[in-house]
Amino acid sequence: MSTLDFKFRAETNDDWMEFGSCRGLSDIFFAPLAERPQTRHRREDKARTVCLQCPVLETCREFARAHREYGFWGGESEEERHQAGYRLIAPIGVRA
Ligand code: SF4
Fold first, then answer.
1. Smallest Cα–Cα separation from 47: which of 67, 30, 35?
2. Is residue 71 one of the residues assigned to a domain?
3. Which domain holds residue 62?
4. Which of 57, 62, 63, 72 to mutate to test the pocket of ligand 1 (most atoms within 8 A of CB)?
5. 17 C-alpha to center of ligand 1: Å?
6. How many separate domains does the chain show?
7. What separation in Å is there between the alpha carbon of 5 and the centre of ligand 1?
8. Residue 44 resides in a domain
9. Residue range 6-65, pLDDT digits in tens
10. CA-based R_g, the chain, Å
């Protein structure tokens, strides 16, 4: 193995992200530190409303599932993605 054999994230076509309705709205798609469950539900309801009007919803959901993303993607919370069988190490809202 040479010193140039680093492991990088597989290159993906992320062009669809340009069309996401969530651009500039990161604060409702990713949890702040120490967020309370009730606050998380309200934040995720707002994110879901944005996603349901997004032209790339299906692509986004598939991407997030395939890459085990954290945060709210494609109309799904981490908990919903986890429960759909796309396991995360420590999803928010899922008890061990
Ligand atoms: S589906 Fe939701 S998270 Fe995905 S790009 Fe659209 S608005 Fe953003």
1. 30
2. yes
3. 56-90
4. 57
5. 8
6. 1
7. 34
8. no
9. 566 667 789 999 999 999 999 999 999 999 999 999 999 999 999 999 999 999 999 999
10. 15
CB count within 10 Å of CB 70 equals 16
User: In this structure, which residue's CA is closest to atom 4 in ligand 1?
Assistant: 74
Contact (CB, 8 A) for 93 and 40 = yes
Q: Residue 21 is encoded by which pair of tokens? A: 């309705």
Q: Do residues 47 and 30 touch, judged by C-beta distance below 8 A?
A: no
Q: Which residues line ligand 1 (CB under 6 A)?
A: 20-22, 29, 50-51, 54, 56-57, 60, 73-75
73 has which bridge partners?
76
Q: What is the pLDDT of residue 10?
A: 67
